Structures are given as structure tokens and as C-alpha cells.
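Structure in, sequence out. Go:
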């Protein structure tokens, strides 16, 4: 019973921690041609499972590396171990990709010239970017697994179940984000904040845990998404209440002339 409870709790935690990963993957996959998206999504699922399982198998080694500085304190006045470097690099990469995507959306390129000026994202490029961020996010999930469950078999089973759940709903999440530009902008802003939290955690993990940064970020984004969903419901109701008149409509100038 204790193993079953730890398995269920860990599976739920892995799904919650994987939300930001699913959002990033959804945005990257939508830059691919439609015929390559299912293949890329399957590749992401299998590589994600393999990455997490390998990290779980090396969990004791990863924890032993904490405090063993790769970059000594004499260089920057502060030492950085393997986990810190991964967090810093992943945070910078996530901010760069998210800000670049926001800039692309806000610039509003001409659709007639966008196809000629912008090269479509290649399959290998998309998988490479997904693997980089997936490895960064895997650190959180692996550390959570190590602190929740006692047996590696339970950890691996919970990670596999969480990956299957994320894979099942990733297509729907992707379609929903792409259909609603404001939701996509919120998702990109959410990724920017996650990138900032990764940098803070990589620079000073103890301070990040004491401040509970991710809890604040998740709450803020949940509140923002709820408000936006309410706005979407209101817009749909307003569209239903709009009365459309049949027949030709006079332009504004013509109406003024008739009044004169």
C-alpha cells in the first residue's frame, strides 16, 4: 500500500512538473510540417522516457556531484556544479527561444513573404531543441522522484505513466494553444518565467527553494489562464448576441447623404 500511494503521488507530481515541458514541445512541434508532427511527438515521448530512466538510474551519482564544482569559486566568486550549469544553460536557452517566438508573433510578418523569408523548422532541429529542454526539465522530475519514492522501480513506472499521459494530451494542448493567440502568448510568457526561475535555481538553488519560486509562477499562470478562459467565454456569448442584418448595407457616407 505504501508503494502504491507513493507511485500515485509521484505520477501526479511528474504530470504537474511536465506541464511546462508539454507547452514548449507543443510550440516547437507546431513549427514543423503537419506530416512530421506525429513522428516528432512519438520521438519526444520515447526519448523523454529514456532520458528520465537513465537519470533515475544515475540518481545516486547525480546527487553525489552536488557541491563538486566544475567551475571553481576562484573564477566567478561562486562555484557551479553539474546541476547548476545545466539549469543555467537550460534557462538561458528557454528564455532565448520563448522571446524569439514572442518577437516573431508580435512583428506580424506578411504571410505572402513569410514563406519565402523564413525557413521551416527541420525535424532534426526540432528534436534537438526538445531534447535540450527535456533534459533540463528532467532534473526537476528526477530529483522529485528521488525525494518521493524509495524504490527505483516505482520511480521508473511513475515516470513512464506521466510521459504517456503528457503524450496523450499534448496534441490537444497544442491545437488549443495554436487556435487561441492570447493563450499562446501566455504560454510563452510562462516559459520565460520558468527560464528565469531555472537561472535563479542554477545560481543559488537554496534561495530558489526557500522562495518557492515555481509555486508562485504556477499560481500566477493558473490565474492568468483562468481569466483568459473567462474572456473567451464572454467573447463567444457576445458573438451569439450580435444581430446580423440581411441585404446590402449603406456605407457611412451614404447614410450621411441620405440624412442631409
Amino acid at each position: 500500500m505504501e508503494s502504491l500511494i507513493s507511485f500515485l503521488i509521484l505520477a501526479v507530481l511528474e504530470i504537474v512538473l511536465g506541464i511546462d515541458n508539454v507547452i514548449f514541445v507543443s510550440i516547437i512541434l507546431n513549427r514543423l510540417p503537419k506530416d512530421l508532427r506525429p513522428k516528432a511527438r512519438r520521438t519526444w515521448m520515447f526519448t523523454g522516457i529514456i532520458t528520465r530512466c537513465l537519470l533515475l538510474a544515475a540518481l545516486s551519482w547525480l546527487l553525489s556531484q552536488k557541491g563538486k564544482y566544475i567551475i571553481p569559486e576562484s573564477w566567478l566568486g561562486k562555484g557551479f556544479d553539474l546541476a547548476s550549469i545545466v539549469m543555467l544553460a537550460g534557462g538561458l536557452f528557454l528564455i532565448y527561444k520563448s522571446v524569439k517566438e514572442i518577437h516573431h508573433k508580435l512583428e506580424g510578418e506578411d504571410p505572402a513573404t513569410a514563406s519565402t523569408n523564413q525557413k521551416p523548422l527541420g525535424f532534426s532541429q526540432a528534436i534537438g531543441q526538445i531534447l535540450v529542454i527535456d533534459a533540463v526539465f528532467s532534473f526537476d522530475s528526477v530529483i522529485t522522484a528521488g525525494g518521493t519514492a524509495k524504490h527505483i522501480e516505482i520511480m521508473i513506472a511513475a515516470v513512464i505513466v506521466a510521459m504517456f499521459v503528457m503524450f496523450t494530451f499534448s496534441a490537444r494542448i497544442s491545437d488549443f494553444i495554436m487556435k487561441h493567440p492570447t493563450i499562446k502568448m501566455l504560454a510563452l510568457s510562462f516559459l520565460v518565467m520558468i527560464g528565469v526561475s531555472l537561472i535563479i535555481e542554477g545560481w543559488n538553488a537554496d534561495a530558489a527553494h526557500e522562495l518557492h519560486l515555481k509555486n508562485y509562477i504556477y499560481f500566477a499562470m493558473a490565474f492568468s489562464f483562468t481569466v483568459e478562459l473567462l474572456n473567451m467565454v464572454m467573447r463567444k456569448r457576445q458573438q451569439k448576441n450580435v444581430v446580423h442584418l440581411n441585404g446590402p448595407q449603406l456605407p457611412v457616407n451614404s447614410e450621411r447623404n441620405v440624412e442631409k
